[in-house]
Design goal:
Layout (H helix, E strand, L loop, with lengths): L7 H32 L4 E8 L6 E5 L2 E5 L2 E9 L9 H5 L12 H30 L1 E3 L9 E3 L1 H5 L7 E5 L2 E2 L3 H9 L6 E6 L2 E6 L4 H7 L6 E3 L3 E5 L5 E3 L7 E5 L2 E2 L3 H7 L7 E8 L2 E8 L9 E2 L2 H5 L2 E3 L3 H28 L5 H4 L3 H6 L7 H20 L6 H14 L5 H31 L1
Parallel strand pairs: 1-3
Antiparallel strand pairs: 1-4, 2-3, 5-19, 6-11, 7-8, 7-9, 9-10, 12-14, 12-18, 13-17, 14-15, 14-16, 16-17
Helix pairs in contact: 1-3, 1-12, 3-9, 3-12, 3-13, 9-12
């Protein structure tokens, strides 16, 4: 990667969206702890967005609470009096318990305080998904509408798939929508068999062992896309040398190389940077030749018609009250998929931790390099679900670890000792920091692989 080739615009968009998204998620998560602690009469000493080792970017004390913004965007925290947490304030714990301290409260109140952040993140995700469906609706691609078949990348071709194939089933289960095909493949824990219609004939493609691992490691995980012809929708940015494209023209060739579909057009111009090229376009019954100039990325700058208009997508619009149950269902399904993905990391040879684990670098890239509000809120909802699930895991230093010890106390009537809680908190922090360092190392390795 050279400095000149680095896309600073995409980097800025990813960083900006990452910070905004996680600021929302962390602030609301910590607000859950804060508001329930205050509700039960606990003193909250600090409320911080992001961590602030050594110094803070901003802080202000209001009443008994110091509010601030740290400089390490990897989380946030509230410091509740009388609680063994990230601060590891051992001296305060040596003093007699006070009525306003966390440790003085009944176990059921402490349990609510511990789980409040997770609950807010989960409810927030369901609300976000509901609002996405209300504002933008839901778009699906029926497999029966892919009359031109699919375009496949080099990895898909290496296992026997071909451009123009139409995949009908995965392991014998009929594929109704394009997303079902991806889910059926990616969440499989056994060898994958694809039922394919090719040139009017039915055939079976058995994906070899190791295919999903290669797919996960590949820089481009596109694998396949819907195939469609190249129809001009807009040409405002095109640099013409001679002739002119018109809306509705269908591109059928380039420099005397003829084709039918968009993927073939992309392949035909892949090496044609900063030069004049001749496009052959079908206009009604006539063929016209138009000479245009490409840029340094081989782009000709015309806007093709939306493939959804050509293929025919299934668009579902929701009223406000219809979107709420639909959003809840969508969020629950996403949580189930995430849990299934975690399970496959431990049960399937195809899904490896080293291929799937990522740090803030991987997370930032998921925003796509452009500022798209639908994508931003979709990713924020997904991260909110993941944050809720990860925090409820019974690991010391996470909310789930604190909740587990509190449940133990409620069941047995015996409270874990402060010394035990200190060691458990330290062990949990070491585990989490080690995992974060490992994930960051994997991402750095991938940048140079």
């Amino acid at each position: 990667m050279t400095l000149l080739a680095f896309n600073w615009s995409a980097f800025g968009a990813n960083v900006g969206q990452f910070i905004l998204s996680f600021s929302i998620l962390i602030a609301l998560h910590e607000f859950g702890h804060f508001i329930t602690a205050k509700w039960f009469g606990c003193r909250v000493e600090k409320f911080y967005l992001f961590f602030n080792p050594w110094f803070s970017l901003w802080k202000k004390k209001i009443g008994e609470t110091e509010y601030g913004i740290g400089w390490v965007p990897l989380g946030g925290y509230v410091k509740i009096s009388g609680m063994i947490d990230e601060s590891m304030d051992k001296e305060a714990m040596k003093q007699p318990a006070q009525p306003w301290e966390f440790r003085s409260k009944p176990a059921w109140q402490r349990l609510i305080i511990m789980l409040a952040g997770v609950i807010i993140n989960f409810v927030l995700a369901l609300f976000i998904f509901a609002m996405i469906l209300f504002v933008w609706g839901e778009e699906k691609t029926p497999m029966q509408n892919l009359r031109y078949g699919i375009a496949v990348d080099s990895l898909a071709k290496s296992v026997g798939l071909k451009d123009g194939d139409l995949i009908r089933s995965v392991n014998g289960k009929k594929v109704v929508y394009l997303d079902d095909l991806r889910k059926g493949m990616f969440f499989s824990d056994k060898q994958i068999e694809l039922g394919v219609k090719r040139a009017g004939m039915d055939t079976t493609i058995v994906l070899p062992s190791g295919f999903l691992s290669k797919l996960t490691r590949a820089k481009s995980a596109q694998l396949f896309t819907a195939r469609f012809p190249v129809i001009i929708d807009e040409d405002k940015e095109v640099k013409y040398v001679s002739g002119k494209l018109e809306k509705g023209d269908t591109i059928i060739g380039l420099n005397n190389q003829y084709f039918q579909y968009f993927d073939q057009y992309i392949a035909a111009k892949k090496d044609l940077k900063n030069q004049d090229i001749t496009l052959h376009a079908l206009r009604g019954k006539d063929t016209v030749n138009v000479v245009v100039m490409t840029d340094e990325n081989t782009a000709t700058k015309f806007v093709p018609r939306n493939p959804g208009e050509i293929i025919g997508l299934e668009m579902i619009h929701y009223s406000f009250f219809e979107a709420i149950p639909a959003g809840i269902k969508y969020g629950v399904n996403k949580l189930a998929e995430y849990v299934e993905g975690i399970k496959l990391l431990f049960t399937s040879k195809e899904h490896k931790v080293s291929d799937n684990l990522g740090s803030v670098i991987s997370i930032g890239k998921t925003f796509g390099g452009t500022w798209d509000w639908e994508r931003f809120w979709t990713m924020t909802g997904l991260f909110s679900i993941i944050l809720a699930f990860m925090n409820v895991l019974p690991i010391p230093a996470l909310d789930g670890g604190h909740a587990l010890f509190t449940l133990y106390e409620m069941i047995t009537g015996r409270k874990p000792g402060d010394k035990f809680m200190e060691y458990a908190q330290m062990a949990g922090m070491v585990l989490l920091l080690g995992l974060m360092a490992y994930a960051l190392g994997l991402d750095i390795f991938r940048l140079f692989r």
